[in-house]
Amino acid sequence: MTRVLPKLGWFVVAAVGAVAFGVVGLSRGETISALWLVTAAVCTFLIAFRFYGLYIAEKVLGTDAGRATPAVRLNDGLDYVPTNKYVLFGHHFAAIAGAGPLVGPVLAAQMGYLPGTLWILAGVVFAGGVQDFVVLLLSTRRDGRSVGDMIRSEIGPLAGAVASIGLLLIMIILLAVLAMVVVKALAASPWGTFTVAATIPTALIMGVYVRFVRPGKVAEMSAIGVVLLAAALFYGQIVSESPTMAPLFTLDGVSLAYMLIIYGFVASVLPVWLLLAPRDYLSTFLKVGTILALAIGILLVQPQLKMPALTKFIDGTGPVFAGGLFPFLFITIACGAVSGFHALIASGTTPKMLENETQARFIGYGGMLMEAGVAVMAMIAASVLEPGVYFAMNSPAGVIGGDAVQAAQTVSGWGFVVTPDTLTQIAHDIGESSILSRTGGAPTLAVGMASIFQGFLGGPESMALWYHFAILFEALFILTTVDAGTRVAGFMIQDLVGMAVPSFRQTRSWVNNVIGSAVAAAAWGYFLVVGVTDPLGGIYTLWPLFGIANQMLAGVALVLCSVILFKMKRQRYAWVTLLPTVWLLVCTVTAGFQKVFDARPAIGFLAQSRKFAAALADGKVLGPAKSLDQMAQVVFNAKVDLVMTSLFLVVVISMIVFGVLAVRKALASPNVTTHEVIGLADEGQAHARPA
Amino acid sequence: MPARLKTLLTRLRQAANLMVGLPDYRTYVQHRQTHHPGEPIMTYAAFFRNRQAARYGGDNARISRCC
After folding, report:
1. Option in A88, A95, A281 nearest B66 (CB)
2. What is the pTM of this model?
């Protein structure tokens, strides 16, 4: 009986999931409740965790409860500490959850909620979860070494060098894209700009408090921070309505971009305790709290999805991002389905705190399933908006024009009927001057979240407050990524340059740090400014580039996992990592080649630069550019993007070659050729012997 | 307070701290007392600073958060 019941239970989960998928997939023309999407997702997660996750743990990796983890063997009470699995899950989840899973699905909603949701679910089960889990365990078996280290030692030093250059390029694009999301959300929004600006003095106060006034009292400091943030949020409304103060905080995209670049540089070279760390605390707690609140909100309010399951834009003509369903949907939703950055987290601090190998499934695979849940919530938040409103918010100004009448006309012409009054009314409800072309995902998500939150707390009058709360929540943790990322990118530059000039590698040298951070901030700042001034709208061009980069990184991490499985002589299970590797490489390489060579100027950078260059030579101006200067700018931007995409392609193709060579070598050897640290639980502390 | 509730609250506190990179101080002190008796133990304030520097420090700079 005790054996039958659990099996019966799994049968019920599968049946409920199948019904939910039926409703989600087959409904046409009528709106469905978001709960169906939630049910389908939760059933998928449960079954994937119980069956596929367990298969990977027991068969593929052979996790062993008797094998001591680095946390046990090297326990120092600081870096290496055996940690309760729920506590460690919180640490890991807080590190992997960011803006990516929130923005990607919002952009992908232009094709309808169905394609994006299916990719999130399939992607997390077979690619994202697998990557995070396998990397976590491989790193745990190597004393918590990083992915870069493992590539160097398992594939080769040249592969390691190529991977670290690729990583730096990805960091730069990532920081530029995330900063642009903030710029797009704050441009011409005095309320939002004031609230986000207020987080800087708030962080300074918190930093001084927790270092000097009450050392280490994180809870007290966070409480102070939350109170100050709430005050800034309320006062922001007064600022936005004040004729004297509102103009001070009404900034255009370019000024905001330069401010962000300066901020990113300054924050990354100041002592970390002053600005960077307190900001990190604040944004982490706000992020986790808001995600929980959004989950509760969706369950309580049970909103209807107004976006159709599929829109006509699956053909690749959509205004939000260019390119067809394959490969660009799989590029647009990176985080949430599979994110290469997670490989860095899973080989960072988490493996040093894992109490037992058998918990890696819960932390690695389970953590990623939870992140996919966040992505599904973002998809829901974007789909509860009227489709006409969604497209008015997410299409570049060059496409829909600058005023409500023209925008409503254009969007209605696509078949998403919306009136100019609706567009101005929503702008008024959320306390903004306009909602047109607020691309980047954050404002759309904020409107969706605000409409869910006001449904159970505050009512319609609270829309504006919730909207700006959601903007604050997104901007805060994006800015934390921007300042911490600038710092890390600076270290990476020091490391790379250090290969030629060893003295530059000294990370304790303040001058070197300043130079490294300045170069990093200038690099991502360049792409940010270019994106903000781009007549085509930066998100339209840059987000696919970021997606390609992130998926490429995941491909590199999965190549490493596959190589190691071959070296472990477990090649009969290697399909588990080879399957997502091949899929990601096919997607990124196809997308990369289309971005470079496609004959349609909307997609291919080469065709775009030629088309605009030819028109420029004839002295003609092509839309959306408005002047010859802008024409020249489009040509130049297309060339720069072309170079970046080509570099990504070179990195990914050379990693494939390195991977194939390493696999062949592993197959040729009759022995296990990988280097694991084998710790035996009963041999006491700090005992290790090589395999 | 029932023991279970107390454990839950402890775990929540530990999780919140570890989310921002601060491991459990009591565990650290116990570790030092058991495995390194007689050797110095950092005060809580020193421990906090040490962990903060390690999270963002330059020597083993790593990406502590994702996009």
Report:
1. A95
2. 0.95
